[in-house]
Design goal:
By secondary structure, the protein is of the alpha/beta class. 28% of the residues lie in helices and 26% in strands. The protein is built from nine helices and 18 strands. The protein has helices at residues 30-38, 61-74, 90-100, 124-135, 219-226, 249-258, 280-288, 298-311, 315-321; strands spanning 4-12, 17-20, 23-26, 44-54, 80-84, 101-102, 107-111, 141-146, 149-152, 156-158, 167-169, 176-179, 182-185, 198-199, 207-211, 231-236, 262-267, 291-292. The protein has an eight-stranded mixed sheet with strand order 4-1-5-7-8-9-12-13, sandwiched between helices. A four-stranded parallel sheet has the order 15-16-17-18, sandwiched between helices. Strand 12 (176-179) and strand 13 form a beta hairpin. Helix 2 (61-74) packs across helix 3 (90-100). It is elongated.
Length: 333
């Protein structure tokens, strides 16, 4: 049996960082870490490529498009792809790639670390080992590998700033775990391919994410509309609560919806999701024309909104996109 061929794409982040004058910053190239990478990949043929060397705070939507294009270009030449990425925005990247790489037929696995590879007690090699072997598993989809577990890319959030256990799979089981029995993939968690692969790399940059707080004035929403935003994702309270007395946000939202602006509502709570059918405030919001994020992560909700608005301006088509699960990003029943 031929060895699996895995391509590792390096974008920077803590894993490849070195100490510089102003603090840790990406500095290692794949040639610098190739020897260490090969130690965790016996029986696998590795190819490494440097795409960029960025702290993930400096990863922008145009980088997502470029990264998706690179994956599409390489997918016929390899069995899987590992993307080294900074942890801070990795969940945004993994979510957007889940939408841009529609029906991807190979594993695409993002990973990073909380400590640089140059640190002798770093988590870098453990995470790389997990990512490489998930990429060689043959399980198609976009994933995040971290701390001996693999999560669906569109369900992943960074939940701890310092711990090695930095990421959780939100409202969804882990796709795989590593134990003394090896790596066990839960095939029932994998996204079902719904057709042939399509690269869908367009997006709208006219999207805003807004976290509510008590006393926020409705004029904030009006200002966003006046600035030309076409979509607003609102992190509301609890299961989706928003004020409709005093500062009546729902009345303002109704006006935005009537102007063709897409308003998507989720929850500030990380787990269990939103349900606007429970309370009067949520039902008023639905009557105003909002869409529900349900149990999507904030990262997945905002990137799906960007992706959908990059594909269509038709209000019914937008609503249709949010009525279906494209890559297991949302639970609909």
């Amino acid at each position: 049996m031929e060895n699996k061929r895995i391509v590792i794409l390096n974008t920077g982040g803590t894993l490849s960082s070195v100490m510089k004058e102003n603090g840790l910053a990406p500095g290692l190239r794949t040639s610098d870490i190739q020897k260490e990478i090969r130690m965790v990949s016996r029986g696998i043929d590795l190819e490494t490529q440097d795409l960029c060397s960025l702290d993930s705070a400096n990863i922008f939507p145009e980088d997502w498009t470029n990264l998706a294009g690179k994956v599409a270009e390489l997918r016929r030449e390899c069995d899987g792809i590992v993307i080294i990425h900074g942890t801070d925005t990795m969940a945004y990247t993994s979510s957007m790639l889940s939408f841009m790489l529609r029906n991807i037929d190979i594993p695409v696995v993002l990973t990073g670390s909380q400590l640089s590879m140059v640190n002798p007690v770093a988590d870098a090699m453990e995470n790389l080992r997990c990512a490489v072997h998930m990429a060689a598993s043959g399980a198609p989809g976009v994933f995040v590998a971290f701390n001996r577990k693999v999560m669906l890319g569109c369900r992943t959030s960074k939940v701890r700033s310092l711990s090695f256990d930095a990421f959780d799979s939100i409202n969804y089981p882990d796709v795989a775990r590593i134990s003394s029995l090896g790596m066990k993939v839960n095939r029932g968690t994998l996204p079902v391919r719904q057709g042939v692969f399509r690269l869908c790399g367009t997006y709208s940059d006219k999207v805003f994410m807004l976290k509510l707080f008590p006393g926020m004035h409705r004029s904030v929403l009006r200002a966003l509309a006046d600035q030309g935003y076409r979509g607003i994702y609102i992190e509301a309270f609890g299961v989706g609560g928003m004020p409709f007395m005093k500062h009546d946000l729902i009345d303002e939202i109704a006006d935005l919806c009537s102007r063709g602006i897409t308003v998507l509502v989720g929850t500030q709570c990380r787990y269990e999701g939103s349900n606007l059918n429970v309370y009067e405030t949520g039902r008023r919001a639905l009557e105003a024309g909002v869409l529900q994020a349900l149990d999507m992560t904030s990262e997945s909700a905002v990137t799906k909104l960007m992706w959908v608005l990059g594909r269509t301006e038709d209000r019914q088509e937008i609503r249709d996109y949010f009525s279906v699960s494209l890559c297991n990003e949302v639970t609909l029943s």
